[in-house]
């Protein structure tokens, strides 16, 4: 089916459908969205890494040299990840996958990893995470599932997503800086709806991310993905979620 793509704008909250808990991925999504208000995680900015001769190697340096995922520091502080608006373009029944890059997607590639923790900083396996975003042109796929998908965390509460850095857009709801929409739900727990953002220093599509971020009234810099790169035109990143496991 050919994709018709539509520019999105400012996000607004939307309810998602009720489902049973019998077997499919839809068992994770509860009848109504639960807004999680919380203290913010510390914003992580991208900085150039001095040479090893200039200072001792850090844990991040060692992870990069060994090809391991880069984690946030600290990995968990017990503060819940801030919630955000769902927006009007969430679609249920997305495919289960960890790679959102499909034919026709030509953007700046991003692979980011993370862990889902509870507020006691215990990793949570089997957590459902939904991702959806616009493409390199600032358009959302509203007829299919391009740049949409869901996955479950591993036995260690970890996830990996391969995608692209989305572009900013201007539409009938206003102008938005690049962001990735997410829903996170632990088994039987409430749903966290939030949006992930990019550091001011991000280089993609010739856009000035510092200016775009500063002009977005919905941005929450506590939800910034920590990036390293670009290397060969692509980025590595990390973001950890801290969520409630029971409804308030």
TrEMBL record:
It holds the Pfam family Dioxygenase_C. Residues 86-243 form the Intradiol ring-cleavage dioxygenases domain. PROSITE patterns: TAT. CDD domains: intradiol_dioxygenase. Residues 1-24, 71-100 are annotated as: Disordered. Keywords: Dioxygenase, Oxidoreductase. It comes from the Bacteria. Belongs to the intradiol ring-cleavage dioxygenase family. NCBIfam families: TAT_signal_seq. This is Twin-arginine translocation signal domain-containing protein. It comes from Streptomyces katsurahamanus.
């Amino acid at each position: 089916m050919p994709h018709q793509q539509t520019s999105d704008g400012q996000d607004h909250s939307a309810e998602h459908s009720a489902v049973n808990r019998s077997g499919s991925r839809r068992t994770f999504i509860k009848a109504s969205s639960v807004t999680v208000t919380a203290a913010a995680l510390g914003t992580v900015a991208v900085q150039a890494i001095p040479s090893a001769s200039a200072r001792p190697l850090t844990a991040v340096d060692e992870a990069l040299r060994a090809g391991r995922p880069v984690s946030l520091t600290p990995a968990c502080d017990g503060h819940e990840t801030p919630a955000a608006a769902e927006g009007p373009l969430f679609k249920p029944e997305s495919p289960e996958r960890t790679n959102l890059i499909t034919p026709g997607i030509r953007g700046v590639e991003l692979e980011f990893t993370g862990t889902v923790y509870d507020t006691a900083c215990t990793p949570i396996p089997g957590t459902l995470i939904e991702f959806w975003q616009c493409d390199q042109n600032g358009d959302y796929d509203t007829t299919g599932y391009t740049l949409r998908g869901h996955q479950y965390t591993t036995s260690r509460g970890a996830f990996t997503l391969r995608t692209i850095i989305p572009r900013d857009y201007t539409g009938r709801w206003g102008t938005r800086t690049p962001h990735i929409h997410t829903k996170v739900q632990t088994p039987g727990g409430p749903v966290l709806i939030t949006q992930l953002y990019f550091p001011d220093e991000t280089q993609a599509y010739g856009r000035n991310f510092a200016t775009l971020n500063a002009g977005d009234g919905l941005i929450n810099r506590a939800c910034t993905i920590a990036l390293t790169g670009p290397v060969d035109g692509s980025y590595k990143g990390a973001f950890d979620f801290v969520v409630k496991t029971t409804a308030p």
